[in-house]
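To assess whether ligand presence alters the predicted conformation, the chain was also submitted together with (R)-mevalonate. Input:
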Amino acid sequence: MSTTAHHHTSGAAACASAPGKVILFGEHFVVHGTDAILCAINRRVSITATETANGVKIRSCIGNINTDSLDAPINSIKTALRPLYYIAQTASRRAGFRRGINLDVTSEIPSGAGLGSSSACCAAGAAAVLRLLGLDASREKVLGLAVDAERVIFPDASGADTAASVLGGMLTYSRQSGYTNIPFDSPPGFGLIVANSGIIHDTEHMVRQVENHKKRNSSEFSLLCQKESELILKVLEILRGHDSLKAAELGRMATRNQSYLESIGVSNERLGEMIRVMRSLTYGAKITGAGGGGCAIAFTKEDRLAKIYDELIGRGYDCFAAKIDCAGLNTF
Ligand code: MEV
């Protein structure tokens, strides 16, 4: 028997990679209409899409999918990989494609840590599949398909994370107005340390928890949304201002934003403890992403990053100095 007998691929392949992100300010409140400020970071998900005989085969470090059909009801697909199946299914229908798609996923972004691994996956997956099938793979089309895909597991997703993964750099995002790029210098005038609490969180669960909190405390919640909006405006002003003040002022804003996040119940003892340690070494720290676990960020001067990294590692924290990713989505 020929060694190629089991090979159904036509040889066509499309690869794409997309960065994870940190939310600098505005997580959760962005779901309820305020702006958030995000930046893409130098940790990526890469996906290679190839054609196969039938169905959807996905290989990733969080699991595999192996279906014989491109038409499975979307809810029958194992949760974490459902968005990628959705992308393969939707793009195939759009292209009138009736064979199958293989997706190979590799990731440098820990999942369930608030660093945008699922958004980066959706962005890279959408770009790879659209290109494989010869469809329009402009950034707008990729973002549209990636956000739709994210919403098959998480219907309330604001789209903020996905925008950061596709566009790269630093940006504001709101549900009403979409994204706006924030120009920044290189280096940006502040250093970012990310520390991982090691507690896996579920973004959808945390968003639902905030929704319940909002129902029980609606006037307090709308006051906090207003304060968050004011804080975001202040941060934008700081980012336009003088480099020598950025790190300290952003740190102060982070500490203030953390107090709002604590008010809506997304911090906990272990995160609070980690944030206190980070704060003692930097200008200020806060949760990044959904909270309940996952990561926190701290602002410092760029020339202090190595020292603070060593201190945190010495105290047993899993951390890294994040760089802003300027490229966003890459295809090759
Ligand atoms: C999760 O990284 C950010 C949240 O604001 C949810 C969202 O924006 O979809 C908690």
